[in-house]
Design goal:
Elements lengths: L11 H15 L4 E2 L2 H8 L15 E2 L4 H14 L3 E4 L18 E4 L6 E5 L4 E4 L5 H11 L3 E2 L11 H6 L15 E7 L5 E3 L33 E8 L1 E2 L3 E9 L5 H13 L8 E4 H6 L4 H4 L8 H10 L5 E9 L1 H17 L3 E3 L25 E6 L2 E3 L2 H17 L7 E4 L3 E11 L3 H20 L12 H6 L3 H14 L15
Parallel strand pairs: 2-4, 3-4
Antiparallel strand pairs: 1-2, 5-6, 6-10, 7-11, 8-9, 8-10, 12-14, 12-15, 13-14, 13-18, 16-19, 17-19, 18-19
Helix pairs in contact: 1-3, 6-11, 11-12
Bound molecules: flavin-adenine dinucleotide.
């Protein structure tokens, strides 16, 4: 054990004793502390050295009883734990930890689907269940439900994604909004259920989100107040018909009219899904390698990216959305959307395909990693209100910063009804330390500049959580700390998550 990393404020003797107790609780093979076993947990794509956010160990329970036992040991010995579900939060920190040396509580082995209600279209899952497993399960029942999943759907978990308030691209794309009922373990061993889950023999835990009294689910997302051991989620009845369309616009300045027209179509329900709006940069990166289209240094010029997209029959902005419903509804929504999008200058490709929008699991989005090579990625995700002028202001600001740092400007937008999440992958080669430093500086400047311009972030990586938290106001920091002190007074659950510590 001579060269192993220790958890913060823990002596080697105490750490040894912690590991021994965990081995007794979960079995020796499920407590990992050798450098070879722990290093993969610290592999990150975000622009930090792996070592900066390296855990000291990982403990892998297989049941709620084992989680309880590990939490009791951690609480008694004051060893911090970082809970993960499938641990593939790639570009946001993967399964690394905010405070170096924190022990990962890896819940991949807890992979049971504990309830399925075909009438209400609901399931209850444990943290280790993946979307792939859930889709196989539903298909085996013969019931016709769809799932909404994020880009890496096959290999990631509904719980991990929902707790990050992640998004997909169907009408059920806001994952937290389609969750219903958490089971949560607190650091003192209290196990409780949100919503109506506390009613003896509850009939409606997965049917009614709010329960009685304060609705608590939200405080367990993007937070470190408890460990979620089960979650209910709603399934989307398979639509009778669907039609995927790409609307594209030729010029960067078209962002104003396209945002305004899409807002109208989203608000009146013609387009029921966020879909995805991509600029030329992100569409190019999804299909090409940078070296094949640009041999200069720094960021690829936008005019060049747009020219390449035009050769592919696309534009400066490309909005991929799907209409869902009965065939007559899809037909009538299509007529309406077509008329309004064309009036706003769009060219339409009416019979497109996006697997993620039609319940087909795919890992296609990983093609982004081929753009430069070297698996460096961090997502910068400012929120804009769905107003053309604000979108343009935010995206121009973002591009001025990426250009200055020589980082390629890419954006994939989730179009809500009133808010747009402008998710920008900052891509680089991890082997090139200078590039990594540029991306890090770019991200840091972006967060500050966005806050000065009145824009907050939707989500961030473990390496930037303190910075992002500091920009959301002292009162906000204080209230989070007060809740943390009440629910986890020793601060053993995920210290530093979203900038929250005791
Ligand atoms: C190419 C690519 C495309 C992507 N596309 C998308 C996308 O479309 N949408 C999207 O949302 N994301 C996307 N991502 C980001 C990320 O991979 C997903 O969000 C993924 O679902 C998160 O990983 P996970 O499900 O394994 O969660 P985990 O890594 O298990 O969890 C994420 C975090 O949530 C907390 N947490 C997890 N489980 C628990 C628990 N049980 N109790 C308490 N806290 C917990 C922890 O802080 C943890 O670090 C993409 C990533 C890549 C590389």
């Amino acid at each position: 054990m001579a060269d192993i990393l220790l958890p913060p404020s823990t002596s080697p003797a105490d750490f040894r004793s912690f590991l021994k107790s965990c081995e007794a609780a979960v079995g020796a093979e499920w407590v990992k502390f050798s450098v070879a076993d722990v290093t993969p947990y610290g592999h990150v794509a975000m622009p930090f050295d792996d070592d900066d956010h390296m855990p000291s160990a990982a403990v892998c329970p297989s049941s709620i009883e084992e989680v309880k036992a590990v939490v009791a040991i951690a609480n008694r010995m004051r060893v911090p734990l970082w809970p993960t579900s499938t641990g593939r939060n790639i570009g946001y920190g993967s399964s690394s930890v905010a405070d170096r040396g924190t022990v990962v509580l890896d819940m991949r082995r807890m992979n049971r689907i504990t309830d399925f209600d075909p009438d209400l279209g609901t399931v209850v899952v444990e943290p280790g269940v993946t979307y792939h497993q859930l889709q196989d399960f539903i298909q085996a029942t013969g019931h016709n439900f769809w799932l909404d999943f994020p880009g890496p759907g096959p290999i990631v978990s509904p719980i991990g994604n929902t707790l990050e308030r992640g998004h997909g691209v169907t009408p059920y794309g806001d994952h937290f909004a389609h969750s219903c009922g958490f089971e949560v373990l607190l650091s003192d061993g209290t196990l409780f259920r949100t919503g109506l889950g506390g009613v003896t023999d509850t009939t409606s835990w997965q049917a009614f989100r709010y329960g009685y009294g304060p609705t608590l689910d939200g405080i367990f997302t993007q937070s470190n107040f408890g460990i979620v051991t089960k979650m209910g989620l709603w399934l989307m009845p398979a639509p009778k018909a669907h039609k995927t369309v790409i609307a594209h616009w030729p010029d960067p300045s078209d962002i104003v009219r396209l945002t305004d027209v899409v807002r109208g179509l989203r608000l009146d329900g013609t387009i029921q899904t966020e879909g995805v709006l991509g600029n030329a940069g992100i569409f190019l990166a999804a299909t090409r390698r940078k070296a094949d289209v640009y041999d200069g240094s720094g960021a690829i010029p936008q005019e060049l990216a747009i020219a390449e997209l035009k050769k592919m029959g696309l534009g400066a902005w490309n909005y991929v959305f799907t209409l869902y419903g009965r065939p007559d509804r899809v037909e009538s929504d299509w007529k309406e959307a077509k008329a309004r999008l064309e009036a706003a200058g769009a060219t339409l490709i009416p019979d497109a395909k996006d697997e993620q929008q039609i319940n087909e699991l795919t890992l296609k989005s990983f093609a982004l990693f081929n753009w430069i090579g070297g698996v460096g990625l961090t997502w910068c995700a400012p929120v804009a209100p769905m107003r053309g002028a604000d979108m343009q202001r935010q995206l121009r600001l973002a591009q001025s910063i990426t250009d200055r740092h020589g980082v390629d400007f890419m954006v994939g937008t989730a179009f809500g009804e009133r808010a747009a999440l402008n998710v920008m992958p900052l891509i680089y080669d991890r082997a090139d330390k200078a590039q990594m430093a540029r991306v890090r500086a770019c991200y840091t400047e972006m967060v500050d500049a966005m806050a000065k311009a009145g824009f907050g972030m939707y989500r961030t990586s473990v390496g930037f959580m303190d910075q992002v938290a500091s920009l959301h106001g002292q009162a906000n920091l204080d209230i989070n700390r007060r809740i943390k002190r009440a629910l986890d007074p020793s601060g053993i659950i995920a210290p530093g998550k979203s900038g929250i510590r005791v």
